[in-house]
Specification:
- The relative contact order is 0.22.
- The chain has a single domain, classed as Alpha-D-Glucose-1,6-Bisphosphate, Chain A, domain 4, CATH 3.30.530.20.
- Strands 1-2-8-7-6-5-4-3 form an 8-stranded antiparallel beta sheet, covered by helices on one side.
- It is of the alpha+beta class.
- Strand 7 and strand 8 form a beta hairpin.
- The chain is 26% helix and 39% strand.
- The longest helix has 20 residues.
- The chain is built from 4 helices and 8 strands, in the order αββαββββαββα.
Length: 173
């Protein structure tokens, strides 16, 4: 079977710019609630993913920060610790660590972005599972508000942002 030059070029571009596929689903989306589940396979070991995970500036997207620079992010990886963003003239508390199990699980109360100003309760669970080829990374994100929150409209955008973060976390540098 002969592959055309255009198809070869398209495949090279796909592999180069989109080397990692993720499974990202909006499980439920209602005005008062949504649940997301995103899964990626990484060739990194669980220890390598964990090291990146607890340094959000290494994998979170600058476009999705208040300061415009992911280097301003930090995480104190202990129960009660904060995921913060600090820069000259501002500071944001993005989340609080609820549960941490080294190389396995990070759970945060994390009303990122517009969810914070809406007074929405959220839980973001990041699980790492060792596989034969590396690590399976699972993001589960649950948001609860009230019937006036219109969360079903935000679910796809939050899913997109979390998906971009997951791709970055899972890729080997």
């Amino acid at each position: 079977m002969k592959i055309s030059t255009q198809l070869q070029l398209a495949l090279i571009i796909l592999v180069t710019f989109f080397p990692l596929s993720i499974n990202a689903k909006v499980i439920t989306a209602k005005p008062s609630h949504f649940k997301l589940e995103l899964v990626a396979e990484s060739e990194l070991t669980t220890e390598q993913v964990w090291k990146k995970l607890i340094e959000p500036k290494t994998w979170w997207q600058s476009d999705h920060t208040y300061s415009g620079d992911a280097n301003n992010l930090s995480l104190d990886p202990v129960a009660g610790g904060f995921w913060r963003e600090d820069w000259q003239g501002g500071s944001v508390l993005h989340g609080t660590v609820l549960n941490i199990q080294t190389n396995k699980l990070l759970r945060l109360s994390a009303p990122f972005g517009p969810l914070q100003e809406m007074a929405v309760e959220t839980v973001w669970t990041i699980s790492l599972t060792e596989t034969d080829t590396g690590t399976r990374i699972t993001f589960e994100f649950i948001a609860n508000g009230n019937e006036f929150s219109a969360l079903e409209k935000l679910a796809p955008a939050v899913n997109y942002v979390k998906g971009e973060a997951l791709k970055s976390l899972a890729k080997s540098d």
